[in-house]
Design a protein that fits this description.
Length: 391
Amino acid sequence: MTNSTFTLKNARLVTLNGLIHDGIVRVEDGRIAYIGTLSQLTPVEQAWLTDAIDADNGYVMPGFIDVHVHGGFGADFMDASHTAYDQITKFHMEHGTTTMLATSMTQSHEALDKVVDAVDAYMKSNSKYAQLAGLHLEGPFVNPKYKGAQNDAFMMDAQIDWLEGWHEHHPGVMKQLSLAPERDNALNAIRWCRAHGINAAAAHTDATYEQLTEAANAGLNQAVHTFNAMTPVHHRNPGVAGGVLTDDRIAAEVIADGHHVHPACIKLLVRSKAAGKLILITDAMSAAGMPNGQYDLGGLPVTVIDGVARLTEGGSLAGSTLTMIGAIQFVTRHVGLSVEEASKLASINPAKQIGIDDVTGSIEVGKQADLVWTDAELNIKKVWAKGRTHM
């Protein structure tokens, strides 16, 4: 790990107010201490430039925040071990992610117990890599009709006593519950989550537009991998997708890898969603960063060919091998977003959604030095989490 005090110069700094050309960012003890340009430095501050890192007119963005990621580099969060979590957080940090939610799969109560325990323990450790901000429970309270790559053997109606038990023993660990809002007891689960500061998201759902609206009235505030594993838009039956497009209370996740969602539909999301309500995710599984071959996702066999993960039986898309920098590259090259616009979808928007925007998600004095430096073509040069890097 390098020293957490350093200066970057000659950068295109991506801030909430736009680009700062020929920018300088100073990091001291893992926090951002200065943002500006050469002309603004005092004679004393100019001493910082002696050993400064030359960004060579590349971009310096806020570290990416992935609220929906299952694994990477051969490991899965369901493995529930510190070693596996190091593998995942190291791999994704190398691709720009500095904060993430460990995302579970639809599995047994016992298996999920182990994941909650492991995430809590890892959050309390001094991670060298990307930080875990908490746990995203995807399932098991979802609908078999839109099961995707989730295991329908463990799908059930919402069990609030499970949520209460996890919250009691691991307060603050759960950050998001993704469920099918049409299932029995789902509305009560949504109300419980929102009362405890936990996001409630529509996922793997056969809900109608009206049921989604009722769920939003109860507090549902997010949609998992929009357009995937949900009722689609029809001009006389808007479905879940139509509700997500039109309800400003609901933040929309999207997997921008060119396989899950057509670029035109991502453009539709960009144009439809209110400011701050669109979020890039990877939904990456253990095969991210690995060669083609056979893998496992939530107990289901997965085949990866040319970087596309599908269930070996049935052929449904099974998560992705996407990285956050890959998503940034995709939306800038194929959706037409600027780097500044794309950066917000991967940083400040998810930070606000999970309530950590006072700490990270933007390049501002006083915040954690979670930074991504790329060249002009958006290839990663170096990544810092809390001012530290292992690259």
